[in-house]
Amino acid sequence: MISQSSKQLIERLNDEEYLSKLYEQMQPGIRHYVTTNSGSITEADDLLQESIIIVYKKALDPKFELSSSLETFIYSIGKRIWLNLLRKRKSENKYLQSLNLAESESVEEIVLNEQRIELYTYHFNKLSQGCRKILSLFFDGNSMKEIAIKLGLASDGFARKRKYECQGKLLTAIKEDPLYTELKHE
Questions:
Q1: Contact at 8 Å (CB) between 151 and 134?
Q2: Could you tell me which residue, 100 or 127, shows the higher pLDDT?
Q3: Does residue 95 surpass a pLDDT of 50?
């Protein structure tokens, strides 16, 4: 038997007016996330629709319980789908990129990219072991819940806070490096 909260969620998602407002509310955030992570507005809109369909299907499961706001749940599903898609694209294109590297980039661009990677790697390696671990898990596409479990942290909220702090330390260190300013202007 479907729980009362699932029934309510299904009813809301079947209400065209509610669904329209939900799309309007969620669209700017999803579009921003996707377009700032190598995607297009069309891909973002498709991702939002796919995320809402997944929520609907999950609500049909009698064991499903929504433990966050609907908007947060939809956003996290969309983010997870997008990260998996980017990871898939990256692995598919890795071989092609290595073959076309000399043709598509000048020597200056290759050197500049290598310098940027070296700058990032240098400052990443200077972080504490805990920060390196949490950021590595995050960059590998693990959810905050998975990171919290793997690192034995109290909650996914605490994992999110630690990731945010570690990212901040890394960005600050990189931006304070004189090489960053030099590379930024090249």
A1: yes
A2: 127
A3: no
